[in-house]
Amino acid sequence: IEAALTAGPLQGRHVLVTSGPTHEPIDPVRYIANRSSGAQGTAIAAALRDLGARVTFVTGPATVPPPAGVDLRRVETAREMLAAVEAALPADAAVFAAAVADWRVANAAGQKMKKDGSGQAPALEFAENPDILATVSRMGPGRPGLVVGFAAETEKVVDHATAKRARKGCDWIVANDVSPETGIMGGSENAVVLISERGAEHWPRMAKEAVAQRLARRIADQLIGQPVT
Ligand code: CTP
Ligand code: CA
């Protein structure tokens, strides 16, 4: 009876969350990165855990600490993140909150690059990283029943995020407007639009933790009636 009283709506469910930036090496001591703190993904993982889910948390080198009570998988690069995600499946739902680097350095050096005295700077070449969200969204058997992506846009948020949802093949996109005038980027609040097959739903601006709790509730509602993976 105690267990039944305390069990959350995601009890018995496995949910995968990606979070943070990725680091793409230039040489053994240097890398390309982005400014993601990992705050929104961390809050989502914590909110899913609080509803009773077993959470696998695949995170790049974030600045905020990972939540307690999750199965933590630390990675550096986009390719490592994809491998960790594939190893963590199957899952009932997957939330891709990571700010994955779109490109890696194709001509990364095995040893520290040295100035050669010529005054010439090295030329970096780039290769496109695998799209983790699109890869999982387009899996046949083994695809999570609910796949949620994010989209950070600076203009035409609903249009761009709706197109992104179709392009990636995910079920939902959580879109946010990161144009400078919103002051959202790097802050503690978020104003998101949830894009689903039912269209665009504008959520009011709120703390990232509140966005996470609302999203976790929606995920729990969506999984009602779906067989357990
Ligand atoms: N994503 C991913 N793997 C990548 C790039 C992005 O899984 N290599 C995921 C992100 O975690 C996010 C979603 O895809 O959930 C959208 O990321 P975003 O950078 O907005 O989309 P891109 O397709 O990379 O398009 P853009 O050119 O706008 O950056
Ligand atoms: Ca991108």
UniProtKB/TrEMBL annotation:
Co-factor: note: Binds 1 FMN per subunit.
Enzyme Commission (EC) number: 4.1.1.36, 6.3.2.5
Catalysed reactions, semicolon-separated: N-[(R)-4-phosphopantothenoyl]-L-cysteine + H(+) = (R)-4'-phosphopantetheine + CO2; (R)-4'-phosphopantothenate + L-cysteine + CTP = N-[(R)-4-phosphopantothenoyl]-L-cysteine + CMP + diphosphate + H(+)
Binding site for CTP: D102, K112, P130, D131, I132, L133, F150, K164, K168
Molecular function in Gene Ontology: FMN binding; metal ion binding; phosphopantothenate--cysteine ligase activity; phosphopantothenoylcysteine decarboxylase activity
GO BP terms, alphabetized: coenzyme A biosynthetic process; pantothenate catabolic process
Gene Ontology, cellular component aspect: phosphopantothenoylcysteine decarboxylase complex
Cofactor(s) needed by this chain: FMN; Mg(2+)
Pathway in which this enzyme or protein is active: Cofactor biosynthesis; coenzyme A biosynthesis; CoA from (R)-pantothenate: step 2/5; Cofactor biosynthesis; coenzyme A biosynthesis; CoA from (R)-pantothenate: step 3/5
UniProt entry tagged with the keyword Repeat: no
Domain DNA/pantothenate metabolism flavoprotein C-terminal positions: 10-221
Listed name of the protein: Coenzyme A biosynthesis bifunctional protein CoaBC
Stretch of the intact protein here: 175 to 403 of 406
